[in-house]
Every structure is written in C-alpha cells, then in structure tokens.
C-alpha cells in the first residue's frame, strides 16, 4: 500500500494544484480518453478543484460504452440458441442493447454467464464439450492480448466449440476522429496509460504533430492525473506540440513487444462502427482470415439482427465526444439512474455518466473522498 499511497498524497496533490493554477493563463480544454482516469478525476475531486481554471472533459474511454447495440443484440440472440453459452465481462451484461440487456435476456431464458477473462470462457468450453461457448470480446488494446492468448490456446488444443464476438477497439483512431470533428474543443489529451502500456506512444507522436495537439501519457492515481495535467498545461502555455510520457514506470515508447506480437498473430486493424460515433476508420481489431473459424459472426451469421437506432433520449455520443457533461443530459438522474440506466455510460464501471452519478458534488476538495 505504501507504493499506492505515494500517488494519493493529499499534500502533494494540493501542491500540484497550486502549480497548475500558478502557470495557467487561460481555461484550456483537456480531454482524458480512459474511463479509469475519468472516474478518478471525478472521485478524487480534482475536476472540481480545477474547474475555474481548466476544463477537463472526458472522451470515449469506455469500450463497453462504444459497443454497438447490434453487437449486444447478436450476443442475446446467441444466448437463446440451443446448446450455446454466451459469456462476457460482468458490466457488459448490464448494457442495454436495442430492447434489453444480456442480463434481462438471462431472466428470459438465455444462457448468459459472467466471466473474469477470456481464458475462463475457454475453460468453460473445454468443460462443456457438447455446448458452444461464445465470448463477447470487448475492450481496448489493453485487453486484446488476453483474448488473443485464449484463441492461441484454443487453436493449440484444437477446441472447436469456442468462438468470440470480436469487439475490441483501438483508442488512437477515436482521438483522431474527435480532433477532426468540426466542433472539436480539445486542446490537449491525457493519453490512457494502460493502453500505452501495450501499444507504446510512438504512433501518437505523428498524430500529435499532424493535429498540433500536445499529448501527455498519464497514469490513473490522483498524483499521476495532476502531474499529467500540469505537464499538459506547461506544453500549452509554452506553445509546445509533443508527446510527453509521464507514466514511465509502466510505459515504454514502443510498448510491450510480446503483447503486441500476440495480438498481431490473431488480429489485424479494421474499420467498425462505434456506438454513438458511427464508423471509425482503423478503429477496431478484427480477426485475421485464418482465425475466422473462431469468429461467432462468421459461424452464426444468420443470428445477426438488423441494426436499430439507439434510444434518442440518451446523449451518450455527446458525452463521449466531450460536447456535454453527463449532467447536461436531460435524462441524467431522472429517466437514467444507476439503478435504471438508459445508456451504456451509466452502466459501465468506466462510463462517464456512472462516474458523475456516483461521485460528483460541487463541494468536494481534492482527495477528501476515498470511495
Ligand atoms: S445520463 Fe444516461 S441517458 Fe444521458 S447520456 Fe448518460 S447514459 Fe445516456
């Protein structure tokens, strides 16, 4: 705990806040692209403590939230298929599809089970040889290596009753899409430390130069976040456009070579729609041609339902693009609550709306609230 405590030190946090205030000449707009960072910014009170000098907005940092409802509808359809077990991470099961969530589908007789990892889903397939076990594989580049490892193991052991719904997404194309939008307000990014642990930040350098947007690779603890904000403001105030790595205890410029090799052996980059964003070029990881036998959307294509529009009351797209804060959605706290969510950002443990519903007050001081 000593190690973590160093990154949650209240005196150091207040000193960093003073430094940020001392060098800020205008209300810069900074965006984080990681649900874990969003939650900690709100929970620790950092956002509130700096709101008069900086605008901290939250991007599409929740992979569960950007999974299209058609993908969830497909998973639900498979859960009702005879001799099929549908698996995914716990918070994914609560996310509404077009008409219902996977949890609701379970109460209606679908075989839906929560797992902690794709390897758990593969084990379930090995233990249930008469059933098809499908894993809904969501996540950023951070979780893709675990899915790739499960597929490599399935191949090695010649497991034929296991498949995945490939729904892994890539963060950088979404950052590019935000910067290119006509109503973009982002002036600097806090890049997601966990994603960069796998991918590195080399490819962010050309994006940073092309978009004239400083990027600071940032960790998750309150001190990490304040340090990332301080360095972003320094770059902005100094009119410097470059990538700074402030999460060097975990992130190397070229990433984790072994994890990247594992992912590349199974996946290739492809386009796909993000919920609320539409098609994002190169925004997905798709299974390579020789791994399609594990692709549930190929194996069970007739079960793929038609795409349907999302609930118009939910402004998830505006929240995830940083155009509004969750409280500006008319449904926040009314038709949409933690107990009865309308949209994915209220359901997911990484969703921005869930962060504000749980933690946001206007009176908190930094690090006052521990949980
Ligand atoms: S508060 Fe609820 S309805 Fe509004 S954007 Fe967030 S998830 Fe959607």
Q: What hetero molecules are bound to the protein chains?
A: iron/sulfur cluster
Form type: globular
| Structural class assignment | alpha/beta
Q: Give the number of DSSP strands.
A: 11
> What is the topology, as strand order, of the major beta sheet?
2-1-7-8-9
Main beta sheet? 5 strands, parallel
Question: Radius of gyration over alpha carbons?
Answer: 21 Å
CATH C-level of the domain at 69-170 and 255-303: Alpha Beta
Identify the CATH architecture of the domain at 69-170 and 255-303.
Answer: 3-Layer(aba) Sandwich
- CATH domain topology of the domain at 69-170 and 255-303: Rossmann fold
Written overview of the protein:
This protein has 371 residues and is α/β, with parallel strands linked by helices. The chain has a domain at 69-170 and 255-303: 3-Layer(aba) Sandwich (Rossmann fold). 40% of the residues lie in helices and 16% in strands. It contains 17 helices and eleven strands. The protein has a five-stranded parallel β-sheet with strand order 2-1-7-8-9. Strand 5 (132-139), helix 8 (144-156) and strand 6 form a beta-alpha-beta unit. It is globular. 52% of the residues are buried. The mean pLDDT is 93. Iron/sulfur cluster is lined by residues 313-316, 319, 326, 329, 331-332, 336, 342-343, 345-346, 353.
